[in-house]
Amino acid sequence: MKQLSQHRIGSGLLLLRLLVGWVFLSEGIQKFLFPAALGAGRFEKIGIPVPHFMAPLVGCIEIVCGALLILGLYTLFAVWPLLAVILVAIATTKGPLLLKQGFWAAMHEGRTDFCMIVGLLAIALLGAGPFSVDRRRHGE
Q1: Contact between 16 and 119 (Cβ < 8 Å)
Q2: Cβ distance 63 to 73 under 8 Å?
Q3: Domains of the chain: which residue ranges?
C-alpha cells in the first residue's frame, strides 16, 4: 500500500512539473516566434524597461527553467526565476487591469498566472518527486 501511495504521489508531481514546465516553456518560445505580440513589442507596450533586452532574457529564462521543470533537473533552482518572472508579469499586466476594470476582470485574466504561482510553490515545497532526473542524480 505504501509503495502504491508513493507511486501516486510521484505521478502527481510528474504531472504538476509537466503542466507548469510546459506553460513556461511554450510561453518562452512564443516570445521569440511572435516578438511584436508577445516579446519585445508586448514588453514595450506594458512599460517594461529595455524591452529588446528584457523580452529575450525572460524568454530564455522561461525556456530553460521550463525545460528543467519538465525533466525534474535542478528543480528548485528552476522554480525561483520563474516565480520572479510570473510576479513581474502579474504586477505589470494584472495590476493595471485591476485598477482599470476591477477585481473580477483581473482575476479572469490572471487565472493562469495565479495557477502557475501555486504550481511553482507546490513544486518548491514537495520537490521534483521520484520520476525526475534530480532523484536519479542523488540516488534517492
Answers
A1: yes
A2: no
A3: 10-138
